[in-house]
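Incident review: delayed structure delivery

Summary: a single-chain prediction request sat in the queue longer than the usual turnaround. Root cause was a stuck worker, restarted by the on-call engineer. No data loss occurred. The affected request and its eventual output are reproduced below so the record is complete for anyone auditing the incident later.

Affected input:
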Amino acid sequence: MTLRHSSLGLGLMLVSGLATATPIPRYEDLLHAQHVPALPQLLSAPLWASTKVLAIDTQLDVAPETGALTGQVDLKIEAVASVTQVSLLIDGGLKPGQATATGKTVNVSTQAYQGYTLVKLDVVPGLGVGETVSVNVAYSGTLECKTEGCYAGKPLAFLSENGAIPGVYDQDSLGGYNAWGASRSLTLSVPEGTDVVASGDRVAQSTAGGKATSKWVIPGYHSYGGNVVMMGQLASKSVAGVSVPTQVFTTAAAPSYASEMVGWMQQIVPFLDAQAGQKLPYPELKVFKLPLGWLNIFRGTAGHGLTLLSEDYASGDVAYFQETLAHENAHQWWGVLVSPTDIQTTRWLVEGLATFSQIDYAAEVQNPKVPRDEYLARRYREHWLLVKYRGDPTLPLVVASPAQIPTDSVQNTLWAYIRSSALLEYLRVVIGEQSFATLLRAWAQDCAQKLCDTADFLALLEQTSGEKFDAVFGQWVSAGAAVEPQIGFSQVGGKLRVSATGIGGATLPLELWITLADGTLKKQRVRFQGSLPVEIAEPAAVRRVKPNPRQEGMIWSRSATPADVDFDAEVDGFDVIHCARLLGKTADPSQAGGEGIWSTDLDFDPRCDADEDGVIGDSDLAVVTGAFGTLGGGAQ
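Output delivered after worker restart:
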């Protein structure tokens, strides 16, 4: 079923031209690279076009050293509309044999497609609405090597969907991967002495006639996570003290980082258990450390009960390798168990949520001594820099069709990972830590192995927060924009009046940080409606008002007083010194001494970049010094 939830009402109400803010207490606690070609005209909705796949049972006999195999697949399909054809996508080195179906004739034809083979199965007579049929297809051949030396002499070989394991597609070139909800099984025979790790639950294992045979089952539920199989001479270590039996696998020839990953998983699993509010429902979790050189095959991916990560991520910084392991394991929830049905047109609740979890893990587990707000603000500053100087903030996070998803790897990363996680962090700030934690647990509980989408997440957000967010989602999820509010304030008679100009007619929830003259910091959540200011009761003198910097990945705020970089409504020596210290810094990523996902210099401050060219130079500093002495509103 599809979940829908009602809102519990509005947050701030407009009164006499002002949004009256109710004080909120301070709160203090609390890269898949799978080679799968895209078929034409992918569906965004409905989930199924003509065919609903009920079960996919695959049997393979494989020689891992050469890639030679024989196999067969049994499909059980149901016609949602009149059906005359179903298609399989297999490796280009494989050829189909005979296809049969009880009471039907199945005619087989093939078409080369981007290095793969599209196998078309014409069913005669066709299926009527509601009719089910089981189709058996045999195939064999030698897998083509998509990367140099991927079989012979290698310590590790792999199989995946749309290769040795057929992918299933809808009829008549309608497109759309239609195996969501299907139960899946893989029975795999390999030479005795070959170790196998696969996605799914291992339900049987035997040895006979020089062959080792294992069976892996994925129960039927709607999931973006597919089949992956790793084969070779493997080593493993158990992870003790976690909620689900967990093993870390490596190749026997490259066991590096096995012990470190065991220690990391002892921290990652409890962290994700707490975030999702429940443990993973698997009999076991398998974590596979891929050896160096796998960035062009699997950088990192996840399927039912199997997480893979390439050791290449350790080449720069081991701490980043650890947090990336947290990212890929987060996909066991955000992508495998909770797999939004609008995945064809968005990644924000899959890659965005996993990136959000990754950064949270780095804050809570890896850097617990750094104040939480400080750490998260610094990490999300990278999102601001990357999108402002390299990205396209006008692209919706849920696009109208799959054709709009960026194909450029940089732009895809900025869209799917960076902007998406920045929006999630922004939403957490504006509804509060506890409310957002409740929201994530509800998303996991209500939507694991169910049909849910962005609309359901919005409904849960409104239910949890008690506020309306349809306008916010309309601005940044269904549409795209860069918002750069100019924050100004004045204070008269115990009333603090705060404006956010330059946002047009947007609805803009923000958490403001209000610093008093005595240095006390107060946090206040407000909601701006277009050009209307908000009014807050504050009898003490106020020194500065600025948005919580954790929001800066999404909201690129500035002071309403030009060249005032610290939001105290005046241009003084502090502003000049701040920008002077940054002379020569650039917003380009991957520079020496950088931090974060793309090694960006997180000291770079766009508020000092007056001409917005990505470099803080003499002309930028001249803008600040030229405005020295300017006074804005401030306390009166």
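Verification: The two ends are 58 Å apart (CA to CA).
Action items: add queue-age alerting; document worker restart procedure.
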